[in-house]
Design goal:
CATH architecture of the largest domain: 3-Layer(aba) Sandwich
Distance between the termini: 46 Å
CATH superfamily of the largest domain: ANL, N-terminal domain
Number of domains: 2
CATH class of the largest domain: Alpha Beta
Radius of gyration: 22 Å
Helix content: 25-40%
Shape: globular
Structural class: alpha/beta
Number of strands: 19
Number of helices: 14
CATH topology of the largest domain: Rossmann fold
Strand order of the largest sheet: 4-3-5-6-7-8-9-13-12-11-10
Largest sheet: 11 strands, mixed
Length: about 450
Amino acid sequence: MNRMHIFPRFLYYKMFLSLFRGPYAKIQKITTKEELELFTKNQLKQLFTHCYENVPYYKKIFSDLGIVSVYDIEKLTLDQIPILTKKEIRDHFSGISSLDINTRNWFYTTSGGSTGEPVRLIQDSDYQKWNHATDTYYHEKILGIKRFIAKEVRLWGNERDIFQGGYGIQKRLQNHFTNTVLLNSFCMTDNDIEQYISIINKVKPEYVRGYAGSLFELCAYSRIHDISLYSPKIVASAAETLTQDMRDTIEESFKTKIYNFYGSRETLNLAVECAHGLLHIFSFNNIIEIVDENNQPVSEGEEGRILVTPLHNYSMPLLRYDIGDMGIKGPDFCSCGNFLPTLKSVTGRVTDHFKLKNGTQVPAEFFIHLLGVVCNNEKIKKFQVIQENYNKIRIKVVSQNTVTGDYTHDIDKKIKVVMGQECEIIWNFVDEIPKTKSGKYRYTISKV
């Protein structure tokens, strides 16, 4: 690569690191399991103290547990605290928000809606810094990749590219300085896939990452049509469940290992797969518990619900947040040598792809973003999108406010851009959407 291109990216990398130097320096100092446990214990104590002094919802819970002063915090353990659900967040939103929030650079965000229940949350710039630091640790310590310097091709969902015809100048500059080529996984026709393969082969990236289903579709197409794919150093998947069949196809096509990533919009970076196949939990950023139906911790190899406690979001602390996923507890030690605790796998995400007559598959993330994130304005409480056949989609909605014809018409237009203009879209407003046996809502179902 031309040195004139490397130099500004190196400066961008240094500038980016400087924005979260404090958190990253703290993470880098943790080199053993004992240091990690001490760090986590201290961070949790500080978070408890903040909750007692500044968060009315937790002040009451702590008082009910016999905590009558900050000096009693030492007696408090995480497993004593009631599990936090999306319903509690909705019902007690102002009480869970910190009283000192206006001293922080805070902003609203929305959960991904992957359980059919999008919820509004608050995060802040300090929390972002911790997650940027965690993301850097993930790339450098687990994947061995220098962010912004290594060439990256990202096969990711982008509604703007579909509905507005491309990226703005700010996004294009960001992609340039971070050495990233962004490919839209919401547009996956045969022509799109052939173009994406051509771009990957031309760019020769060191790093490819994307939605698991979209990577699989691209690789399956390359195999069916006998088109070679450039082999990067690393492939990483996210957002969707990575099945063994998908893993085999992707690794055979790219001729390299794929690393699975686990995260969410509401708690961001949670865990990443190592070279030995376990998911290492970033417990310096988020504490993860796995509990059974009686809310008791499971043993290694057992499946349970995943609870997450972000350690650094002081604007809206979430203690023991039920994220809506199921997972299997892994061993405390991994033969890869990394000291972070592990998950064997995440089992609870259901992401059916919708199919077009020409064989194109549309990721479930498109509908999640459309109904659960992009267009969510507190009109929709729960949703489920069902593909009845190639030309019929049914949308079940539990609404909490009046949903206007303009709103549904706008959604219809966006769906038809992807699914075809002949697609019939039926809206059903219902009182409830049944859960699966595992206790989750299936937000997309394809009967094709």
